[in-house]
Structure formats: structure tokens, C-alpha cells
Amino acid sequence: MNFYGPRVFGRRACLMDWLRRLALSLLLVSSMALVGCASGPRSNPADPLEPFNRTMFEFNDALDRAIVKPVATGYQQVVPELARKGVGNFFNNLQDVWSVVNNLLQFKAEGAASSFMRVLVNTTAGLAGILDVASEINLERYTEDFGQTLGYWGVGPGPYIVLPVLGPSTLRDTVALPVDWRGDLVNRQEDVAVRNSLWALRVLDNRARLLRLGDMLEDAALDKYTFVRDAYLQRRRNLVYDGNPPEETEANGLSSDGQAPR
Amino acid sequence: MLPRSLRQFVAALSVSLLGLSVAPLWAADEAPDVMVLRLSTEVLDTIRSDKSLQNGELTKVVALVDRKIMPNVDFQRMTASAVGPGWRQATAEQRQRLQEEFKILLVRTYAGALNQVGDQTVAIKPLRASPDDREVLVRSEIKGRGDSIQLDYRLVKTPGQGTGWKIYNLNVLGVWLVDTYRSQFAQEIAAKGIDGLIATLAERNRANAKKG
Hints:
The complex is a heterodimer.
Chain A: H1 6-9, H2 12-36, H3 50-78, H4 81-105, H5 109-124, H6 133-136, H7 146-152, E1 160-163, E2 167-170, H8 171-182, H9 192-209, H10 211-220, H11 224-240
Antiparallel strand pairs in A: 1-2
Chain B: H1 4-21, H2 32-49, H3 51-54, H4 58-68, H5 75-83, H6 86-89, H7 92-114, E1 121-124, E2 135-143, E3 148-157, E4 165-172, E5 175-176, H8 177-211
Antiparallel strand pairs in B: 1-2, 2-3, 3-4, 4-5
Helix pairs in contact in B: 4-7, 5-7, 5-8, 7-8
């Protein structure tokens, strides 16, 4: 399906490049499976790569505590709220562009139309996305990425994987990553310096927005790894089904409402 | 301590709420979605109107949650659900302690989230349940400027008690709280047993309280 327009898959070389990256990611994941497989009575069937994941999680957490969180905290304290809001709006606008594509892929007309209007309004009246004019006129955000698109098409999430630096993911979402990168307008910047600065700014913006949530997590979770994993998996499932996931019975026999199956 | 006028306000509100719930016996219990809307709006309004609550005085927010929300929550069921199969083997004393510690943990988490209330409003989605349902799912949305937070509740019918409905599970942004705690509790119980779980919870609550 050449929904993208001629630029991306116009050249055979681009397609081969993408396929090569896909093969690499699959190779990476299968080697992880060999190294980090869990077994034994305490292993969780939904998380077969738990040992590997826990190691990655510790690494990411350490990296976050050492570098990302302090810089994000500084960013939040130094940069005025209005400016930070503008940065957030700018990146949301770029994300909305990709959402148009994914909404179309999922045949979600309302989502596609709303996202398209948002991009149009925010890029023009909103000064390249810095002002979120679209939300003022009640144009809803329908954020969709390629992982959700695959889920919509029936691809199951696969095992939970914690990616180095990038954080929690699933097999499906990891495979979808190269496609998301293709659709990421920041990534398409030719100038390396501009691209890197934009990328770093986006990381900071996202982290700053999650600062309070992160602190709450520290207080509320008994085991941070398990909490993040379960929250992430539930949230992704919720996003794939757009807020209406089908009922699910738990492995220990209790359904999500606490009753034993009837 | 709460200023005198606020205490009077809260007292008046509690009395009026009590009046609402002790309605004539022939009056129907409040519908679950109506109750959730009323509760959420009241809590949001109370927080907005009191600066000290917004400024993150956690003990005050904890007191607010205790007063307003807890009476409408079936906490025993929440704890039983989170503890899972181990609940059946727990003694009455262990169950009591589990409930207490879990409640402190949850209230503090909820209170932490309430600190971020700005000019949000609550919107309840249409209720998809028949009048005879013993358990319902109420879906709501906290709408701020530009973003919205999905907040769902599972309620069980408790005729004659309070408003007639009690919450037993909470969903924030697609994540069911009780379910998330269930895996963590299962891990602790597998490693250290029920007493170990109680100890871990108590330890965590102590550490959190020290942080203030």
C-alpha cells in the first residue's frame, strides 16, 4: 500500500533498507530470548524475557536518575511554562501528522479528519504548531502510531521487552519502531545538528511532563519494574482498542472485577 | 488544622450528603453514574476552593479523601481482589492489617494526583448498564485544556448502605489499579508470604510518611 506518497518507498533502496532494519530488530529480539528467558516457578508467562527486561530497566532507571531527570528538572525550573507549553504543542503537532496516516490505515475516518484539521489549523494559525489553536476550537486528538495500527490489524502484542534507553515496549511495538521513525518528521530533518537538537528537546519535554508522575510512581509502587510493566501493557491495550478493551480473565482465575469466573 | 470556616463548610456538606443518602426508604438509590459525577465534582470543587489543599499539603488531601471518597469505596473487596488467592488463607487479623496498609498506600497515591487539579471538569460518559445490574462500569473523563484523562470506576450495588453503590476498582488512563497491584502483591506473597507483604506495605508507608 503506497499510502505514504512516492517519497518514502519510491526508491527500491529505501524499502530494502527498511527490511534490513526489520530483520536486524527481529534478530536482536530472538537473541534476547535466548539470553534473557525466564523459567521456573516464579516466571510470569506474560513476561518470558523478565531477567533481560529487569536488567534493561535497571540500566534505564540509572541513566534516567543520572542524566535525564536532573536535566529535565532543570529545564522545567528554568524555562517558563508558556515556552514549555509551546515546545510541547510543537511536537504534538508533528505527532498529529503521523496520526493522520495511522488513522487512515485503521480506517478511522473521524480520527483521520480530526487529526488532519488539527495539523492544518495549528500549522497555519498556530504558528507552525507552537500554539494549540485546534484544542481551543475543540478538535480532538486521536493519537495513533504504527504499533497501534498493527494491533488494530490483529497483530498481538507479543512478549514485553524493555529496550535500552527507549524504555518499555512489546515485540509488536519494537517491530513497528522503524516505521514510526520513518513517519517522524524530526527524523526526516536533513541537517544532523538540527535533528539532534530537536530530538534532545523532545526527550526533555516528555521527561519534564512526566516528572510528577515519576515521583508518584516511586511512592506508590512496591516493585517499580512490575508496576511499569503492567501499567504499560494495560495502557497499550487500551490505546489499541481506543478505550474499549474487551474483558480479560486473569491467569489466577480472577477477572478484572475480582470475581472468580462464573 | 482546617480554618473554622472550612470546617463549617465541610460539616455542612457532610450533613447535606448524609441527608441525601438517608433519603426516604421508598426513594431509589442514586444512580451510579450520577453518584460518580457528584462525588468527582465535589472533590474537584473542594480542592479548587482551598489553596492549601492545592499547595500540596498531603495530610490535608489525605483527610479530604478519607472523608469524602472512602465511604463510597468497598475497600475490603479491593484488597481481596489485589491480594488474590492468598486472601482465602489469610487470618482475620492479617486481612485487617492488609486493608489498613493498602488503604494508606492508595490514598496517598490518589492524593498525590489530586494535587495537580487546575481548571479541570468531569464529564461522565453514557452509562451502558441495565437497571438490574449488580455491578456497573462508569466511564468518566477529566477534561483539562487540550488533554483529557480517562478515569473509569467499577461499582457494586450495596442497597441500603450509603448512596447504594460502592467503588471497587479504579482505572486511570486505561490502567486498572487493583490489577496492577495484584502482580506486585503476588510477587511479595510468593517471596515472603502474607506477613511479608504486610511488612513491605507498612515499610513503604513509613518511608512515604517520612518524606512528608
